[in-house]
Each structure stands twice: as structure tokens, then as C-alpha cells.
């Protein structure tokens, strides 16, 4: 899936693009205006030069006794060139950069053009002499180009400066949006406190109010669901235990041929009691227990749970805690929540491993791993084992809630549940590792 562009980046690109296009359009328009104005200025300069130069040249020529030198010395390149011509059109005098050949324009007062020059012709009153001053179009084009470059050059500084300015302004203006986003993203089943909408802009305040209303309804719904699950589990435990006791007593009193049916009833009641216990644990997990403000040594809790399982037929002689007797596991974790997690992991390992195989419990700083023998579990199946009522390919009894409860409580502890198959260093087996926040 293509990654979406952030609002900040969109605004930066959009505003910078608008500024760039606006500046380019303004520059083009300015160059067009300057081209017309420069043409008027150059035309005026050419005309004024011709009219002022004509009487000086005429007086100078009439005062000379010898034939005039057709060229006049000058220093450097000339922007304006001129020719003095008689009535017949012959060139009498011309500037240094002008050719001796007459300009290809008629002897008529006013402006004329050639492919390369614009020429103004001025004449004496008697029409004996004409002066033609020429301005090359290349000079005008050069002036327009330099003016255009002068307008476009600031873009080199304007573009990065605009990007930086827009980023700073947009980030500052969008900070309430980011704060609201972070507030909403932090909401889950363990954190549904109302969003603080104090100081939010008017555009965002309705969003915060709507989210708070939704959170309130969600809190009420989850509270009702948890209360129902907890009450149901509590209420079911007593009648199930009574029914189970009656089934066991009936097992001893009825004839031999009815005992298989009573065994089925007893197994069903045991499964129902186990499911009620899991539902009670799940309701406590959903209630958000897990973390604690005080640091507690969790090793006594772990050893106590291991001893409880060792007293049962399924766990007798099968548990091994890979840690010295003096080992400590100090974490800011609720001991009750940790006990539920370890009880589910150990029970899951004992039930789903071959009969008589060992279950290894490894303790490392901030980590507890429970590993057991068994076939390799497909990676796709591993990712679904933490879902509620999800079970792998096994014939062992169970409710499909154990790992879901462990995953929920571990997250509330600030840790993470990791499932591995095969066990690291083995060819088969299954391991569940919980990492606890230090």
C-alpha cells in the first residue's frame, strides 16, 4: 500500500508551489512591462541623441576647411552608432563602430528598423544633411534578459526560505492536530480517559467532544461486558462445582453399565468449570490489571505456582525452573496478574506436550520463558494463537483463551508476549516468552 503524505508535507509543497508559480507569473508580467518601457526609453534616447548631435556635427563640418575624416575615434564599444549623410545619401561622417556603407533605411525623418537595429533619422531645415542614430536590438535584449534574471535570481533564496518558513509555521499551527492525534491513538481498552480539549482550536473542539462521547459509551459498554463476564463466571462456579460433586458421587453409586455416561457428564462439567475460570481471568485481564507502582520480587509467585502444578498428576516431576534458589525477578508488576500469566503458560505447556516430557522455565533479567516438547507449529498458526478461542492443531482439551489472557495481561504490564516454534536450539517444540518492562 502506498504511504500517504503527511499534512505538513502537503502544505509545504502546496504553499511553496503557489509562491513559486506566483513569482514566476509576476516576473513574466514584469518583464513584458519592462520590455515596453525599455523600448520607449531607448527610442527616446536615440531620438534625443540624434537631435542634439545634428547641429553639433553640422557646425563642425561647415567650420572645416579640409575634407572631413569619415570616422571618429572612440574608446570601447558603442551602444549607439551614427552616420551623417548628404542629400544624395552619401555617408559624410560616421561613428567608429558604424560601417561606411549607408544604413539600409530611407532618408526620412523618424524611426526606421532593420533586422538588427532601430534607427532614428533627423535632418537639417534645408534638408542638406541627415544624421541617423542606430541602436542595436541586441543591446535592448541584453537589458531585458538582465532585468529578467534580476527578478528570477531571488527565487534561489526564496524557495528554500519559503520551505523553511512554511515548515515552521505549519508545524506550529498543526501542533494541536498532532496533540489530538496522539491523544486519540493512546486510547485502548486500558486507557479510555477523556481527551483534554482545553485550548483546542474551534475546528478541533467538536472532534474532541465527539471522541469523548464515544469513549464514554465505550467505557460503559466494556464495563457492562466485564461485569457480566465476571458475574457470570462467579455465579457459574458454585452450581458447576455442586453438579460436579453430584456426578462424582453418582459415579460410585450407579451400576457399571451407566458409568461411561456419568464419565462424560463429569468431563463436560470439568470443562465448563475450567471455562468459567478462564472467563473470570479474561474479565480481570480486560479490567486492565498488570502494572504496579511498587517493585516486587516475582520469583516466590512463580515457585508457588510451580509447586501447585507439581501436586497435580499432570505436572508431577515435569517442571524444571532454570534459576538458582537465590534468583530474584524484581519488576513493577502486579503479582496477581503475573500469577495468572504464569499459571496459563505452565498449564498450556503441560497440556500440549507429550506425557512425561519436561517443561523448562527459564529466568533471565526481565524475561521468563516457558518451553515444552511437541511438533513444530506453523508460523501462520503462531500469529493466531493469541486470538480468543483460537486453538492449534491439537487433540488436547482447552478453551482457546489461555494465550489470549497472557497476551492481554503482558501488554498491561508494559511487556510483550513472543511465541516461538521450534524452540531456539532445538529441532521441535514450542516456547512462550514474556518480556517485562524494566
TrEMBL record:
SMART domains in the record: HATPase_c, HisKA
Membrane-spanning segments: 149-170
Domain Histidine kinase, first and last residues per copy: 231-438
The keyword rRNA processing is annotated on this UniProt entry: no
Pfam families according to UniProt: HATPase_c (PF02518), HisKA (PF00512)
HAMP domain boundaries: 171-223
SUPFAM superfamilies: ATPase domain of HSP90 chaperone/DNA topoisomerase II/histidine kinase, Homodimeric domain of signal transducing histidine kinase
InterPro entries tied to this protein: HAMP_dom, HATPase_C_sf, HATPase_dom, His_kinase_dom, HisK_dim/P_dom, HisK_dim/P_sf, TCS_sensor_his_kinase
Localisation: Membrane
Protein's UniProt name: histidine kinase
Provenance organism: Neorhizobium alkalisoli
Amino acid at each position: 500500500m502506498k504511504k500517504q503524505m503527511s499534512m505538513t508535507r502537503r502544505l509545504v509543497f502546496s504553499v511553496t508551489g503557489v509562491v513559486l508559480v506566483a513569482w514566476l507569473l509576476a516576473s513574466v508580467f514584469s518583464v513584458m512591462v519592462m520590455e515596453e518601457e525599455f523600448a520607449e526609453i531607448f527610442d527616446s534616447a536615440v531620438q534625443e541623441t540624434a537631435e542634439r548631435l545634428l547641429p553639433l556635427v553640422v557646425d563642425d563640418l561647415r567650420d572645416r576647411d579640409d575634407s572631413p575624416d569619415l570616422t571618429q575615434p572612440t574608446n570601447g564599444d558603442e551602444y549607439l552608432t551614427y552616420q551623417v549623410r548628404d542629400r544624395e545619401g552619401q555617408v559624410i561622417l560616421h561613428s567608429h563602430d558604424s560601417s561606411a556603407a549607408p544604413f539600409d533605411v530611407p532618408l526620412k525623418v523618424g524611426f526606421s528598423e532593420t533586422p538588427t537595429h532601430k534607427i532614428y533619422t533627423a535632418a537639417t531645415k534645408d534638408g542638406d544633411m541627415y544624421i541617423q542614430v542606430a541602436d542595436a536590438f541586441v543591446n535592448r535584449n541584453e537589458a531585458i534578459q538582465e532585468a529578467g534574471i534580476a527578478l528570477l535570481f531571488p527565487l534561489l533564496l526564496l524557495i528554500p526560505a519559503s520551505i523553511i518558513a512554511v515548515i515552521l509555521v505549519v508545524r506550529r499551527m498543526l501542533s494541536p492536530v498532532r496533540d489530538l492525534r496522539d491523544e486519540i491513538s493512546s486510547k485502548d481498552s486500558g486507557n479510555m480517559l477523556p481527551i483534554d480539549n482545553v485550548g483546542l482550536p474551534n475546528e478541533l473542539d467538536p472532534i474532541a467532544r465527539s471522541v469523548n462521547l464515544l469513549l464514554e459509551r465505550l467505557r460503559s459498554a466494556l464495563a457492562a461486558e466485564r461485569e457480566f463476564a465476571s458475574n457470570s463466571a462467579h455465579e457459574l462456579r458454585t452450581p458447576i462445582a455442586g453438579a460436579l460433586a453430584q456426578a462424582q458421587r453418582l459415579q460410585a453409586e450407579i451400576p457399571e453399565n451407566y458409568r461411561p455416561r456419568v464419565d462424560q457428564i463429569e468431563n463436560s462439567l470439568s470443562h465448563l468449570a475450567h471455562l468459567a475460570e478462564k472467563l473470570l481471568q479474561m474479565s480481570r485481564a480486560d479490567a486492565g490489571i498488570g502494572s504496579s507502582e511498587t517493585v516486587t520480587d516475582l520469583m516466590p509467585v512463580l515457585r508457588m505456582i510451580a509447586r501447585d502444578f507439581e501436586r497435580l498428576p499432570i505436572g508431577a516431576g515435569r517442571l524444571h525452573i532454570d534459576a538458582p534458589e537465590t534468583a530474584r525477578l524484581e519488576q513493577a508488576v502486579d503479582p496477581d496478574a503475573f500469577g495468572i500469566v504464569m499459571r496459563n503458560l505452565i498449564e498450556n505447556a503441560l497440556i500440549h506436550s507429550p506425557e512425561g516430557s519436561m517443561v523448562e522455565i527459564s529466568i533471565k533479567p526481565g524475561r521468563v520463558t516457558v518451553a515444552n516438547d511437541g511438533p513444530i507449529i506453523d508460523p501462520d498458526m503462531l500469529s493466531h494463537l493469541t486470538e480468543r478461542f483460537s486453538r492449534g492443531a491439537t487433540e488436547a482439551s482447552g478453551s482457546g483463551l489461555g494465550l489470549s489472557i497472557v497476551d492481554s495481561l503482558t501488554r498491561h504490564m508494559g511487556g510483550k508476549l513472543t511465541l516461538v516454534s521450534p524452540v531456539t536450539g532445538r529441532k521441535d517444540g514450542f516456547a512462550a516468552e514474556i518480556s517485562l518492562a524494566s
